[in-house]
Specification:
The chain is mainly alpha-helical and about 190 residues long. About 70% of the residues lie in helices and about 0% in strands.
């Protein structure tokens, strides 16, 4: 059996027995992975920090309430909570209809290249990214989630399948339908994305 899994179980048992340091060690063990995942998804450090804190607060509450069942996959469980928190964040953003540059996946400093780009290049690039982001927001939730995780989060289809609790084929199918729907919307709206 995996030593890491046993260590997670021991830390959880110690915490449940009253050792407060045990939960801190467990959080510290996975904090970088969880933080990196959230940062990849929201692309805004302040928002990512808030979601990170909410993720572990929620996890500790579930553990304290006795609702966590240890199946040897603590990391997957905590990443699933983080994923749900990110989705909740995007849903709240969608309701308020305010999208920042960072959430749109566009960061002026992050797009600087070795060769100078013209103002026209910047405007075209910005418009294309905004158009694509608006189209992605129109996709059904499951398709939008896969697109966000794949293109904005950089996750593999295996990771997407694990995070969304579906098979790899289902994740691939959702991406396929998302691309079909995006192409259809591009054609309907007569957009030129090049």
């Amino acid at each position: 059996m995996n030593v890491q899994v046993l260590s997670d179980q021991k830390l959880l048992n110690s915490y449940l027995s009253g050792d407060q340091r045990a939960i801190s060690k467990l959080i510290e063990r996975y904090s970088r992975r969880v933080r990196d995942y959230i940062n990849m998804m929201v692309k805004d450090r302040d928002i990512a920090d808030d979601i990170f804190q909410e993720t572990f607060i929620k996890a500790v509450r579930v553990i304290d309430d006795g609702r966590y069942t240890d199946n040897g996959k603590f990391l997957s469980w905590i990443l699933r909570i983080a994923h749900n928190q990110v989705i909740d964040h995007f849903r709240a953003q969608k309701q308020s209809r305010q999208v920042t540059e960072a959430e749109a996946g566009y960061d002026v400093l992050g797009t600087l290249r070795f060769a100078e780009r013209t103002v026209e290049d910047e405007l075209v690039s910005s418009q294309i990214e905004n158009d694509v982001r608006r189209l992605v927001e129109l996709l059904p939730d499951e398709q939008r989630e896969v697109v966000m995780m794949r293109y904005y989060g950089g996750l593999s289809f295996k990771e997407i399948a694990e995070q969304t609790d579906v098979s790899i084929n289902t994740a691939l199918g959702r991406m396929r339908y998302a691309l079909i729907n995006l192409r259809r919307m591009i054609k309907e709206k007569n957009l030129v994305l090049c």
